[in-house]
Amino acid sequence: MASLDAMLWGAAALAYGLGDYVTTVLGVRLAGIQEGNPIVRLLSGGDPGPGSFAVLKIVSVALFFATYWVLRPASARLAIPGALTFLGVVVTARNVQIIRRRV
Prior knowledge:
DUF5658, membrane, transmembrane, mainly alpha
């Protein structure tokens, strides 16, 4: 993996992986917020607990990473971690806004 790839995957891990995970778990557990993603609700049987949400996050990142490896040309691959980083930042910021309104 080139250095730009590594930086984008690091950003994706922080924003999409950690940021969304932490703010979702805090929102659901401490602020009584319902998970907004219907796919996550369906797969977790309602609002996700820390364990089930961690498994869903790991599986989704693994699927995105597998897609990254099969994409050609290599420049198109950067769209995967770039999009995950963007999504993670947006979702984490939205989660923080919702939590702040409830607490």
